[in-house]
Amino acid sequence: MTQTSEFPHDRLRAEVRLLGALLGEVIRDEGGQALYDRIEAVRQASVAYHRDPASDDASELERLLGELSLDQAIGLTHGFAAFSLLANVAEDRAGKRRAQAQAEAGQRADTPEGVLKRLADAGVGLDAVRDLLAQALISPVLTAHPSEVRRKSVLDRTATVGELLDGCDRDGVACDAKSLKEALRRQIVILWATRLTRASALVVQDEIDTVVDWLQRIFLHVAPAQLAEWRKLLDAPDLAPFLRIGSWVGGDRDGNPNVDADTLRAAFRSQARAALGFYLDEVHALGAELSLSIDLTRVTPELAALAQGSGDASIQRADEPYRLALSQIYARLSAAYPALTGEPTPRPARFDAPAYDGPDAFRADLNILHDSLVRTHGAVFADDRLARLITAADVFGFHMATLDLRQNSDVHQRVVADLLKTAGVCPDYAALDEAERLAVLARELASPRPLFSPYADYAAETLKERAILEAAAEALSTFGPQAIRTHIVSKTDAASDMLEVYLLLKEVGLYDPADPGACPIQAAPLFETIDDLRAARATLERVLSEPSARAVAEARRVQEVMIGYSDSNKDGSYLTSGWELHEASRALLEVTRAAGVRLQLFHGRGGAVGRGGGSAFSAVLGQPAGTVAGRIRVTEQGEVIANKYGEPEVAQRNLDALTCGTLLASLGPQSDAGYSAQHGETAARLSAASMQAYRALIYDTPGFVDYFRAATPIAEIADLKIGSRPASRTASPAIEDLRAIPWVFSWSQSRVMLPGWYGFGAAAQGEDPAELRAMAETWPFFRTVVQNMEMVMAKADMAIARRYAGLVPDPALAERIYAAIRAEWDRTVAAVLSITGQDALLGGQPELSRLIRQRMPYVEPLNHVQIELIRRRRAGDDDPRVSNGILLAINGVAAGLRNSG
């Protein structure tokens, strides 16, 4: 690779070839020529199989796979997995170049400049944008949902490869220079010799550490930079931060028995260490920089007073007011550090000072410095290191990320029942109907009398939940109101589910019957099944008719509601999930408007299309009119975090895309502009037919569960050490009890991608193709549905799926169910092509199509080896290397497809 090609895809191909050639050299040197030759033979046989599974050349694949020794299989899998990881680096760089070129050409609406131009063209001025962002909340929420198969050590290596190539671009060094190749080869040797899979299961503290690492390395730096850019573009130097980073890690105990009061405290201590450590380093650096002498400059009276009050007695700094002030700020931060983090300050101050009691006083002192610099020396100090530090303190405080609590409503019911029974209030709360439960809860919420007695005996679950909420109260007292804002209730299907949370908060002093609006934590329902989404209107109406919940919502002027993409998809199909979420959002908006409060939707999206994945920008634009209104929260989880926020430039681009989507959905032409009553009726029919077809296969077909568990690596995925919680909510083998992530992950591995498309073809059969095309052209919601479906189907491969079906012990069952899936696949492909007017999937997106085609020859061998090793394992080969090889293949396929769950 000697020069930048005229065509972007040529440059991408050249970089892939460079990295692939270096990997090949490493494999020959480290693994031997025989392994290299075996890898190449399997790759060629896999390509032949892809072209024609029935050909003689393709049959060579079965012979090669059958002859593989375990060591050869593992070496081969390791090689293809490493190549996929390196190819991802080249693709990410191509994506950055493409995004930059499109932004410079003014072709992107998901950039700050692009969205302001589009809004201006629609008659929306900067004042309206400033006003919206002044009260906006845009919040990506990092979760520990287990869909990231890559170890941090692997991510670090691939990041270093990318940095080396980026440095080559910046420095103008020829990309085939000897020094670059040597540096790349060194990293590839390390990658080749690095174990790609985890040797032990993650615990909650591992997940906390991972999220804190992202917060510390990326978000602490990117959030202030993003706000500074928007302030300049809008000429709004005082624009308050609208970005708030959230986290579930340490507070999400739904189905995770490993989360308790200690993990909640550990999460805040870990987050505080990162935040305060960053602040201490920045204050120290500013102290080295701001050496201004009082003999050569003027300062404001406020700064003079701050400097004079400093405990710094250094003679060398006696004439340096900024350094004196910063010494005092550093000492106060240093004094706060042990109490907030549980550890000694890494670099203690030289003198004692009173600890800051919160971030407000810290920001106030920093503002004194900044105000003095700007007043005295002008705009050169308006957006500098100190300004970015102030912004970081505004966004992150001492708590770093706002931590959500989450628990299943069944748990709350049992805990409340235990409290009521032990207190002699109600002998069997669970036996009451909804009206009776609400009456009991309302009485208790109006009474100042606590239910809990330290002298009574309670179930372990009750004591655990109480301890967690006590830890939450401690966190709020220590870190302030931004530490915890929301308690999400999974499996919400009744108003009593919300009131139970307020009753439990009352037990730890967070809900005061005399002033319910002062409750610092709002209960938020999570509607996630199809039935729950359909009942969402009635449920929320009943919630907001209760004085307790209504008071909290009115005090905030907002009622948050979370809607779940994963379980609704598993429950009713991709199309039905999307439509029911869309309709529930409309209904929830009507309810909150009638109650006089704003709706704040929290979108529980995953990485895969079957769990709500896809472009966040397009997803926001596809929301029903009025449901965004400047406020949106979105989960970011698993591999999505690394893909979207793995480096500062990419992270800022994705945060800007979410911001731009929010602005357009809130201020631009209404997202429902292309919607008509006829389109709505058609979408409703499509949804009903899709759900019928989907459920007929998943829940009503005899033997389907057996097929699913044999024709996908679901059992093997359960052995992946990628999360701290179990794959199923219960020991039941039923699909209903399986978590959405392994459900989607297993279909992705077997290349069926069923959760992302099944049911659409059957639904579209009876509809007018012209109307479906019109819906896709004019209605953002439907267009996004079709585009996401098209993208996920392009990664599917029915020929490989048939080979997985060969793992089913009953050939008749395998043929019957595979034939049903294949028939629906053919119908869905035909429907999508009819709507898009293209001859092939992704025909209108040639760049994406090319990327997928280029990587499949290196992903498919991993599928074939995975099948072979699964066959051996299920035949009784209990050699640990077989299991390790399967997990390595799963890892490689996930890396190659760029999504797991």
Automatic annotation (TrEMBL):
PANTHER family: PHOSPHOENOLPYRUVATE CARBOXYLASE (PTHR30523:SF6). The keyword Magnesium applies. Forms oxaloacetate, a four-carbon dicarboxylic acid source for the tricarboxylic acid cycle. Belongs to the PEPCase type 1 family. Transmembrane segments: none annotated. InterPro entries: PEP_COase, PEP_COase_bac/pln-type, Pyrv/PenolPyrv_kinase-like_dom. Keywords: Carbon dioxide fixation, Lyase, Magnesium. It comes from Brevundimonas olei. One of its GO terms (molecular function) is phosphoenolpyruvate carboxylase activity. NCBIfam families: PRK00009.1. Homotetramer. This is Phosphoenolpyruvate carboxylase. Its EC number is 4.1.1.31. The active site is at residues 145, 570. It catalyses: oxaloacetate + phosphate = phosphoenolpyruvate + hydrogencarbonate. The gene is ppc. The lineage of its organism: Bacteria, Pseudomonadati, Pseudomonadota, Alphaproteobacteria, Caulobacterales. The keyword Protein transport does not apply. It is an enzyme of class 4 (lyase). Its cofactor is Mg(2+).
